[in-house]
Amino acid sequence: xxxDLITVNDLTVPETLALFEAAQEYELMLPAERLRLRDLxxxxxxxxxxxxxxxxTRISFQxxxxxxxxxxxxxxxxxxSVVKGxxxxxxxxxxxxxxxxxAVFRHPEDGAAAQxxxxxxxxxxxxxxxxxxxxxxxxxxxxxxxxxxxxxxGLQIGIxxxxxxxxxxxxxxxxxxxxxxTPHFIGPPALLVNAPAGEGSKMGFLASLHTELDPLLPxxxxxxxxxxxxxxxxxxxxxxxxxxxAGYQLNHxxxxxxxxKAVIMHPGPxxxxxxxxxxxxxxxxxxxxxxxxxxxxxxxxxxALLVTPEEAL
Length: 313
Ligand code: CP
Known about the structure:
Strand order of the largest sheet: 7-6-5-8-9
Number of helices: 11
Oligomer: single chain
CATH architecture of the largest domain: 3-Layer(aba) Sandwich
Number of domains: 2
CATH class of the largest domain: Alpha Beta
CATH superfamily of the largest domain: Aspartate/ornithine carbamoyltransferase
Largest sheet: 5 strands, parallel
Bound molecules: phosphoric acid mono(formamide)ester
């Protein structure tokens, strides 16, 4: 039976840890060992169906697929019959008939990846849908923490900025909760989610909510800054940019208040001068480019797990 990754909950905790172990093995491989992976899936094809733009997710899945010799086809909404009105169901069935072995799928609406997966014959990975789920981002973020031995109860992790529109925040919270970590969601009231904290959370995760970043800064082991997703703000200025920067931008003053060993993260792409000042990008504690590199290895491990589990490593 085919297996999809629509949310982080589609992997058990032991499977998630095994995925991290596999990703690390790929990461530590010597070039000659990596070359031997090239024939593993040379006969297989991966579809990258992206209804929204992407640099990191799309290209790193391509790099990961090519590492196994898989060929890839990229489709976006603009260059396909989606613009002629073809439905999601018909699009999935049409691509399904072409004999792909795997699809990575991104869409602006919550639940679209599950809908696509129901109609597509082969495994589907959610490359981000709506404001709800971006499981491979959460996996690579937690892999980044796991490598530092930080993925354990007691970790103080802040997720700051445009939480309301962030599938990265929600997916990370779900995954962190499974490791007994409750993240702090931080942002202006207009950009915070509605009460995910406490019993009866309808969103499937727990987080504590904060409208101020400064008091938390000295306590945090990890700070994930989020992209302000202006494209989801409906043309409105939900928070004035200078007001946001004054309260939440990670800048020189705030960098000085973070722990010397704190880890600074951001899923990218970064709005420089809004959520991050240039000095935060350049700070020694930034793991932002390491996150990008880790994304390739985590996605390699995921492809191996979903497409050919018997051939993984
Ligand atoms: N983090 C992330 O999903 O980036 P892209 O939109 O560039 O894929």
